[in-house]
Amino acid sequence: MNMSRTRRERLVVIGGDAAGMSAASQARRLKGPDELEIVAFERGHFTSYSACGIPYWVGGAVPDRDRLIARTPEEHRARDIDLRLRTEVTDIDPDRQRVRARDLESGAESWTSYDKLVIATGARPIRPDIPGMDAPGVHGVQTLDDGQALLDTLARTRGRRAVVVGAGYIGVEMAEALINRGYEVTVVNRGSEPMSTLDPDMGRLVHEAMEGLGITMVNDAEVTKILTGDDGRVRAVATQDRDVPADVVVLGIGVRPETTLAKAAGLPLGPHDGLLTDRSMRVRGHENIWAGGDCVEVLDLVSGQQRHIALGTHANKHGQVIGTNVGGGYATFPGVVGTAVSKVCDLEIARTGLREKDARRVGLRFEAVIIESTSRAGYYPDASPMTVKMLAEHRTGRLLGVQIVGREGAGKRVDIAAVALTAGMTAEQMTTLDLGYAPPFSPVWDPVLVAARKAAAKVRGSF
Amino acid sequence: MNMSRTRRERLVVIGGDAAGMSAASQARRLKGPDELEIVAFERGHFTSYSACGIPYWVGGAVPDRDRLIARTPEEHRARDIDLRLRTEVTDIDPDRQRVRARDLESGAESWTSYDKLVIATGARPIRPDIPGMDAPGVHGVQTLDDGQALLDTLARTRGRRAVVVGAGYIGVEMAEALINRGYEVTVVNRGSEPMSTLDPDMGRLVHEAMEGLGITMVNDAEVTKILTGDDGRVRAVATQDRDVPADVVVLGIGVRPETTLAKAAGLPLGPHDGLLTDRSMRVRGHENIWAGGDCVEVLDLVSGQQRHIALGTHANKHGQVIGTNVGGGYATFPGVVGTAVSKVCDLEIARTGLREKDARRVGLRFEAVIIESTSRAGYYPDASPMTVKMLAEHRTGRLLGVQIVGREGAGKRVDIAAVALTAGMTAEQMTTLDLGYAPPFSPVWDPVLVAARKAAAKVRGSF
């Protein structure tokens, strides 16, 4: 009895969302409570929820908040995970293997020692340091609490003019959400085109489609100030050129790794301020600390460089890998190719691999092609146009990236390119891929094959 | 002038559909009429049409026949292709490099010599050798003429009972077409479940879904006779067990390579009676004869064996490769992984790679898993259930095949597996694929990844 007690290890998890709780759950699957004690700290009220789902909850497609919660605190506790909500970790002490946490209700602080530590502190939204940012009516959409606060504001606000700051995937998804709620939506965007994760020529297509949906795009706009009315509430978003009237403002500017604690503890951070790990998701140089989710940097398998990508699917994979390793198994996360897919109403936007500027930044010469095709056989009902851009390396022809803008059936086609990138295929090899064909699903040459043919021809011509 | 004339080569193409006319068009792109004369023989009335589209034309989704024609005879002729319609090649004489053709209108026969020959004679439908097969009201759906004849019958027939013989992809697509036209549809199937291109456990799901759509499935049924009425027209389909009343019968039993000419000419045929070619689509042992489309066998890259797969997307690729090689370029068709996708109303069915029995036949031991997931995040509207079966090789974990049955968004997910098969990935490698994720497009773990995780675990557990 005493022997088994002394052998029991304690795993401490910082952060109760996708990466942290996936890790905890997977570790628990592999090791029972007699072998492994699991303590998880979460400063918010919720666990294991889909932040990616918030725009659809705000927009009304998802009827209530609880549907976004994959696993409740009670469910975690039922699996012998000692989950401490509203408890914020304020210090990591790797030398003495302990963390200090504060109960946000009582203010009480205490140290908890660990044998193994998982850092899953997530990301924090970028908030420009300009006047008025904290005015009532200005909202982030990072957490369920943020989503609820925005919904409360929408319920209270009579005006119907919404301004979304930022035109990345959160920005465009929030634009859709607000359109669906009957708002007049303006998107204020720092870049020359929306979706800076695409090349500008593809971003232009998104721009045009968004305007077609009734969304006003203001590009090349730097937000200088949030203007407020006599009641202190937001009344407009000021840019260098103009004031855009706003009854509500949503910030969708993007996020940075939340690594304040890790930095203070002297853990290794990369060029984007994310934690650096090895392929087992272990923090570099620290035998008993793992990290995953939005607080880490990942290896871009195409460019060979470190990137920060905040995405639930990566966080879940990291958690799975960490939990397996913590639980005594073996798993690795080799890296990403940078796949992302999003939609604005019926417009689907997808990308994987490198953009032109990414390729240039790492010294790769490339051929770029753009083709137009359709989602189904041209004669089949509801065949919709689709534009595919493909980058292949000069001379070798190795696939470097694909971007797709279209309607139904466009987005997930990017998976073809994601797998081909992972496998290191050339455009020429891709031309003979045996992809699913039937008139309701694809033209006889899938749009990705059409792009591959053109890219391969350009690579040959360029020798 | 004379010099250039003597240098001009003649390409003869037998068959005016996808493979033949793609080859002719691509050859013409690379070589002008001064260098290359192109003569194409087609025994029917049409060129370059989508036979795969016939079920959708019959079902009414495609409003008229001409929409299925990708390129008309006039368009081919405008590109200096000497197209001879209603002209059937009756002999190939490889020794003297010539073909004999008969004008089906006048009956006149003549020889045409060639420097290069392309055989694209397609496939012929399997018609069981039983009494009544030629009765009025019994229809194949192989050609546009077949489709028109069926539509004429449907317009004339008052009864609303349709029987489809065969439950492969043509059979299920025709079942949908007839349902859409308001028929009471019974599918009579020789196998134990519909879609024998799937394993029976997945075919069972198709069976249940088809019955849910109001289609009556009669499995394990051998058609013994077509029964006719006093007027000589079809009145029922007799099987070993029962007579199924029918006002119209559609044959969707499958096809065989149409290689009568090739066989008579002594050209090499494979185990399925399809022409054998090398990777440049050149007929084995014949320097100046190429073949492609439904009349050839292809290499299955997963099993390493020859297969016959009649599919428009392969025919087009073959044509492109042949035309490039005939035109003095270089292209190859490495083989297939056996991807196919089809639908019955809103049910999507997809497969790639090997079934259990294919793997056994070539001596491969495997682990098979089946998982259930959804097309989108579970909380997102219209998330629909999807079943994925995955086969991975015992010990190595190499992906062997994937089968998917689901609703919207299920079918084209098979492309992920098609690319992974081509690349020779293992299930374990697939678990970390960076696939597109956002709630409207996928759960946080794509269904294919869920299957890969389970398959990888089973491979590990099986050591």
From TrEMBL, chains A, B:
Upper classification of the organism: Bacteria, Bacillati, Actinomycetota, Actinomycetes, Kitasatosporales
Protein name: NADPH-dependent 2,4-dienoyl-CoA reductase/sulfur reductase-like enzyme
Coiled-coil segments: none
Pfam families associated with the record: Pyr_redox_2 (PF07992), Pyr_redox_dim (PF02852)
InterPro entries per record: FAD-bd_OxRdtase (IPR050260), FAD/NAD-bd_sf (IPR036188), FAD/NAD-binding_dom (IPR023753), FAD/NAD-linked_Rdtase_dimer_sf (IPR016156), Pyr_nucl-diS_OxRdtase_dimer (IPR004099)
A molecular function GO annotation: oxidoreductase activity
Pyridine nucleotide-disulphide oxidoreductase dimerisation domain mapped to chain residues: 342-444
Keywords tagged on the record: FAD, Flavoprotein, Oxidoreductase, Redox-active center
Gene3D superfamilies associated with the record: FAD/NAD(P)-binding domain (3.50.50.60)
Keyword NADP: no
Family the UniProt entry places it in: Belongs to the class-III pyridine nucleotide-disulfide oxidoreductase family.
Keyword Transit peptide: no
Organism of origin: Streptomyces caelestis
Domain FAD/NAD(P)-binding span(s) in chain numbering: 10-318
Cofactor(s) this protein cannot do without: FAD
